[in-house]
Inverse folding.
DNA sequence: GCACACGATATTGTATGCAATCTTGTGTCG
DNA sequence: CGACACAAGATTGCATACAATATCGTGTGC
């Protein structure tokens, strides 16, 4: 929606690719051939390389020397680390957000949840997952912590990959329910409760993963980049 | 020390520049002209651009569209955010590290502190500061949290800029003393104490800043890139 | 028939050149 | 004398071309 008038172009590509990963249209392990991506988006390899480098820094893409870029396949250990980091950052941040919450913020969060529901109802599970991630980031923004919000954004992105790899059940219900409970606590400025809820939410997410099997198999590319 | 045999070259430049910033040889606000940097390191603008982009992502460099790259000048607000994030990440991580600590880790940390002292004694305050940052990152590595270590690394880098801008006193003593106390707690596997010490250490750092004045003035470039 | 070595192909790494944009100096008008 | 407009210069954004390296198929020797 927010097409910045003069976006640096490589950022645009990076965002498109990131969105594709978020929405599980690009599976972990997919090779991102520079020429191919450049062709798909009608730009030069130069900007594709810049985009891939940025995504690599975010942990969404793995760059192997002279081998190319691949959508990252977080290991089990990495998965634990990501949720460990989230457990350190997000509960406290949720508390701060609850304390600083304004009516405008509330409305924005509510809108997020509504969109999430809508996407879920429309069978767009990928988009729902993406929006659910935005919800977490928005909380950090409300807490007025842009730096932490950036970190959480990176962790959310990698969480998306982790979920794609290690998701156990099929119930995405828990997500929106947990988010709704969080929203209520924050609307009531109950920081302690928000912190607890967030902690529990992250724990639920972690336990809903099956972190025992080995990494999975790659896949092809162009089919997933329709948009 | 660890010159990888075939480093991606843009990483090399990025590390060199990052080191220069860490050691306060590059002041906040310094313009990083692409041609100039390319000339200094004997490479093409292409790799310089890649390096600058990476540094931008780390928050060390600010990229302004069609205006160029500048060493970042963290605002007062950003400074608070950075230390807020560190306060969330580092104490708990120090606790984990204390619990997992091995003899090898201890030796490595001790070596870090020794180097820090040596640099300080040699009047190389910049290098001492850099090593002091490495100490914090090493703790996260000992805690076996590579992801968090990466985040802390970014925060340390920005902290270096913040210190360059807002440092109040001249005493760098507190640093190494605090680190020594931390080391002892961790050597004794006293997680709770390590956590408290780290929390206090970060608070000391924060209160030793003068976060009231306005951002400072830029400077020229080539003089700072001797090496 | 299998293993190793070599060469063709493909892909990434880097350099260079041109176009777009911003900065800055100069001149003119009020 | 000050302010605005415009043009020249400088710098970044992007695309293309070449070089370095890895992958993979093929062939030969054992």
């Amino acid at each position: 929606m927010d097409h910045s008038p003069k976006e640096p172009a490589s950022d645009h590509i990076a965002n498109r690719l990131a969105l594709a990963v978020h929405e599980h249209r690009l599976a972990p392990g997919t090779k991102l051939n520079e020429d191919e991506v450049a062709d798909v988006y009608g730009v030069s390899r130069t900007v594709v390389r810049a985009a891939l480098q940025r995504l690599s820094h975010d942990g969404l893409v793995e760059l192997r020397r002279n081998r190319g870029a691949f959508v990252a396949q977080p290991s089990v250990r990495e998965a634990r680390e990501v949720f460990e980091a989230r457990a350190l950052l997000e509960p406290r941040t949720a508390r701060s957000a609850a304390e600083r919450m304004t009516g405008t913020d509330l409305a924005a969060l509510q809108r997020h949840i509504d969109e999430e529901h809508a996407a879920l109802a429309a069978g767009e599970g990928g988009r729902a997952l993406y929006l659910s991630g935005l919800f977490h980031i928005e909380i950090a923004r409300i807490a007025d912590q842009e730096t932490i919000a950036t970190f959480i954004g990176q962790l959310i992105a990698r969480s998306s990959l982790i979920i794609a790899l290690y998701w156990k059940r099929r119930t995405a219900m828990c997500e929106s329910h947990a988010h709704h409970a969080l929203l209520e606590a924050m609307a009531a400025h109950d920081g302690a409760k928000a912190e607890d809820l967030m902690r529990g939410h992250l724990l639920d997410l972690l336990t809903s993963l099956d972190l025992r099997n080995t990494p999975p198999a790659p896949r092809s590319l162009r089919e997933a980049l329709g948009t």
In short: Residues 8-10, 43-47, 65-67 of chain B lie near DNA strand C (CB under 10 Å from a C1'). The radius of gyration of chain B is 18 Å. The interface with chain A takes residues 6, 8, 49-50, 53-54, 57-59, 65, 78, 81-82, 84-85, 88-89, 92-93, 145-148, 151, 155 of chain B (CB under 8 Å).
